[in-house]
């Protein structure tokens, strides 16, 4: 599956150029897990042949990430009351989260979410989904745009530079990034397991 997606990305960029890079980076930040770890290094490897300009490519990648992030942000902001809160109120006890806890996490993200949004932009997996909770928490839009743009610029610059350095050997990156993805997924799973255990322990204590 990974090979298939990677091959499709390469074909897409080879056919559409900068526009293809923009579309793929937009989709990645709009909750669709298309790996920028393939998009940007492959595009960077084509700079030596004259297909792309380095700085234009970095800016296009950043612009795509910002566009997709804004789409996810607005989905979270406008869908919060219509979808998210109703699900929490109706099914929260099955999801082990109360409306009070949801409100508290929303306030925390509103007060401290800037650094989370910025830091997540240079982390695989998490970067794809972080804009949704930012919208749900109604994070200040100007700050969201600034932190997202700066973080996405650093990420695009990093991946493009690696693609330029490695050239045709850019695919050697995949193994490293996949290992990093696994670490992040395992860490998230451990957090979820701890949360569920903590909640069940609290339920048993209060019911007993």
How would you describe this protein?
- With 208 residues, this protein is mostly helical.
- It has one domain.
- The chain contains nine helices and no strands.
- It has helices spanning 2-16, 18-29, 36-45, 54-95, 99-120, 126-129, 131-136, 141-166, 173-207.
- Helix 2 (18-29) packs parallel to helix 4 (54-95).
Succession of helices and strands? HHHHHHHHH
Q: What summary fits the major beta sheet?
A: none
* Secondary structure tally: strands: 0
Oligomeric state of the chains? single chain
How large, in whole angstroms, is the Cα Rg?
A: 19 Å
Report the mean per-residue pLDDT as an integer. 76
Short description:
It contains 9 helices and no strands. It has helices at residues 2-16, 18-29, 36-45, 54-95, 99-120, 126-129, 131-136, 141-166, 173-207.
């Amino acid at each position: 599956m990974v090979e298939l997606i990677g091959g499709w990305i390469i074909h897409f960029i080879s056919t559409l150029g900068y526009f293809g890079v923009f579309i793929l980076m937009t989709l990645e930040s709009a909750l669709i897990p298309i790996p920028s770890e393939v998009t940007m290094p492959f595009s960077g490897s084509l700079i030596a042949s004259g297909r792309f300009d380095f700085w234009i490519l970095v800016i296009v990648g950043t612009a795509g990430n910002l566009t997709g992030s804004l789409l996810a942000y607005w989905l979270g902001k406008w869908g919060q009351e219509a979808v998210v809160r109703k699900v929490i109120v109706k099914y929260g006890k099955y999801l082990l989260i109360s409306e009070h806890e949801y409100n508290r996490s929303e306030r925390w993200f509103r007060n401290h979410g800037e650094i989370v949004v910025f830091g997540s932009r240079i982390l695989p997996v998490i970067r794809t989904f972080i804009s949704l909770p930012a919208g749900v928490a109604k994070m200040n839009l100007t700050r969201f745009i600034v932190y997202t743009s700066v973080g996405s610029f650093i990420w695009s610059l990093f991946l493009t530079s690696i693609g330029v350095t490695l050239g045709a050997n850019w695919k050697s990156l995949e193994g490293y990034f996949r290992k990093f993805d696994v670490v992040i997924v395992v860490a998230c799973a451990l957090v979820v397991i701890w949360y569920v255990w903590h909640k069940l322990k609290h339920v048993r204590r209060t019911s007993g």
